[in-house]
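Memo to structure team: turn this sequence into structure tokens by end of day. - J.P.
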Amino acid sequence: MILKKLTGQQFKELTTYGARNLRANFEEVDNLNVFPVPDGDTGTNMCRTIENGVNTIANNSSEVIGDVGKELSSGMLLGARGNSGVILSQIYRGICKGLKGKEEVSAKELASAYELGVKQAYGAVVTPVEGTILTVFREATEAAVKAINDDSTINDFYEAHLKQAIKSLAQTKELLPVLKEADVIDSGGAGYVYIVKGICKFLNGEKIEASSIESEVASSEGSAPIAIDFSAFGPDDVITFGYCTEFILRLQNSKVDIEHFDIKTIIDILEGDIIKGDSIVALQDESIVKVHVHTKDPGKVLDMMRQFGEFLTIKVENMSLQHNESISDEDLAKKRNRQHVKYAVVAVAQGNGIKEQFEAFGVDYVIGGGQTMNPSTEDFIHAFKELDADNIIVFPNNKNIVMAAKQAAKLYKGAHIEVIMSTSIPQCYSALTMLDFTSDDLTLILGNFNEAIRNVDTGEITKSIRNTKVHGVIIMKGDYIGILNGKIVTANKNRNIVLTNLLKKIKNIKDKQVVTLIYGKDIKETDKPKTVETLNKKFPQLEVGAIDGGQSVYDLLIAVE
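Reply from structure team:
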């Protein structure tokens, strides 16, 4: 089809096709990993980010492109995972800002919106790096802007955009030395190219089957209800824990001044004497308001909210019930017994042993995730709203999770959020040994955490999945590789040799005093004593401690202090 103008439903369709094409190729994007480690997740993160947006607009029937854009942007913002997903959400946030207030757009108007996407994405990154998705998107947009004129079609714009995106993607390895050394193109850029290819397939009339996630969403509507344990609330029971009430509200011009509407108006009502709600989260994106509240009278909440607009979605659940997607009994008990505190800690971790150790240190909420399983912006917001605290300190524990944590911190208004720049489990492990709120001085508390992180060296040992050369280290498939503070420093067939070589690379290792080993789920019990024995022989000055972390991918995580 040839489009002179792009309407809301057409924008919805081409975005959906972009998501479908990425879904069909996300594993290839995941495998574009500089490190030869089975933990690539760029394709997965980008896929889940854009799919969250697509699912948000699935039932939007508006032909007004500005309205569709608003909902798409909100969905992607909350669903953003990993750095690539957050950047993608910001790209679309800028594009959708450019569509604001428009019923349909021409090719030149669409080009202007994409230019806003470039500005938004670059502004969201503290230190933009060329040779990444940012470069691919910017250069593709610049080329498309130059290629079109007043007579150009939407097809012309995307054809020019895709042509340059493919060229720019091929050049990423020339812009980033680490990509050239590993002989791979940038994974985030590759993911974006697949999205644009999907858009062009839609415009060319090519068929792309619905992704599995779309099929799941579609089949869930009108299907059998979720299995509920009705015995959890009997005919003589009294409502104790209230109702978990969630809704998305569309502010109406006939009821409020949307441009000047303050979300605090809704928060004050939910906190007031009539509702007496708790675990309140209220987020506003222009005319869209998303609310979560625990209350004993959801009817009053819904009645009072209609003074501002009309509902797009509503969900009310009795918190006494347990269904097959709910939290565990143990977690529910913790939640019910939670009291208001001044400080709370959230940490991301993968592996039951690590989670248990963090909780023993005093972490209030552990978000499951890490490498290969990056939590979304909304996952962090969910954690924040489960805590009743004035100040929440967050340990992302992975460089690919920091942006999502910071994005959540900006969106959440229910507490003061501080995101610690912890990029590894060993850093967090060391910092949590300093967990002490008795000073009641947030600056001092954060300073102690950051000082602990600066003083720890992080080691990671895993197996290579391919032959490559990274950071000057020649690696063969099946080798153990040693990663020190994010850089590959050694490789060998023997894991203990890799461990000793890794520690030797640490500056001032003779001045270090403690090494903590965190065993992965695949390391054999018989190998653990040998590992400790090796360290005792090679580094007698070090006090060696060990825990069973249970993490996947990495046989050993190492904290050296």
